[in-house]
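Example (one chain per record):
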Amino acid sequence: MTSEKMVPFQYITSQANLYRFLDEIEKATWIGYDTEFISEGRYLPELCLVQVATEMGNYLLDPLKIHDLNPFWERLCREDTVSIVHACRSELEFCFRAIKRFPARVFDVQLAAAFVGYGYPLNFKSLACETIQVSLEKSETLTDWKRRPLLNSQLRYAINDVCHLRRIAEFLRKNLDARGRMDWFEQEMIEYAESLKFSFTEERWRKVVGSKLSSGDELTVFRDLWIWRQTKALAKNTPPTRILRDDLLISLAKLHTADPERIAVMRGVSGLPQSQMVRELSEVIKKALNTPEEEKPRTTNHNYPVYKLATQLVGVLLVQYCHRRDISYHVVTTTADIRQAIAEHEGTLPANEKSRLTSGWRAEFLGDFLTNVLNGRYAMQLTDNLDEHPLRLIDVGGAESKVVPDMDATPVDGDVGDEH
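Predicted structure:
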């Protein structure tokens, strides 16, 4: 095990130096990068530092001193460059919000590790230790990244978050190739990027807990109040719930009136009927209630059986199946995925829905296993190894009963053993 050490880097603090930096990395074929930001008390996270590693060297970019970071985001999006990241949501979000695009080719080491037997999600310190045997110190996790000047300890911490990314990525790439799972990983990266893009651009009002209201009028009022709240929060750069809580949005939608006096007496809505807040709420609700019928949102049909016990049982079997195949269960499926797969098998899934487990790389990975489980073809038996592999499946669907190899097979040969 090797300990972290201070690596040389350039600290970019001006627009002119940013352009010189971009000239220097013009021929880079890969760019590892990470971000430090502050999100507490803000509508959108505030970017405070960008760490970069390339073949040409290591760099820290200071967005608090560089007035336009877009040329860097544009550089990341070139087709001839691989962007290496760890847990890429925030990194991709900053790029997307700046130039409305994602880097063309993204290699997320956290996700890649899940496809070769490591846990998911695995923090960067653990990932560096388990893959390339580098011990990183994580002493600056609560630092104020907006404060200037940054201390040497902060700079050292920041640059060590990127200078090892290339080695980790190469280690994982070799393992993905050896197991024939590179295509699966690339499919998942594309799917994940698309889901992120959707989450950054869609109006997420339907996802608010309790927002499944009973009528078109209620849905319309709730949607319009949600949009009003988001607009106010963005203008003030404050979390939306500080403007108005979710439960109040739901209660206002169920009130079925734009009467300022009725709104003003609701607990949590501060002010008199003549106050600006109450007037704005009344106007939004009044407009929503007058929305033409064809423009009102419709309820989403998610009404199918819960299959609670069946979902739990199938989940247990999939945990062991994934474990024996050296792939993280958490990247393969969720409880919702399993429930959808069962509903699809039983013919109760709405026509506009489809389980992820029956398409793409997941269907290839699971093969006939899930179908056979749902068809009742297997009997379960406890093994002697109750800790690591407690279950053995017996195929009782043929002329002779036999152990199911997918559940009783030894791990695939390779550099990575059992799931970490």
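Caption: Residues 108 and 278 are 46 Å apart (CA to CA).
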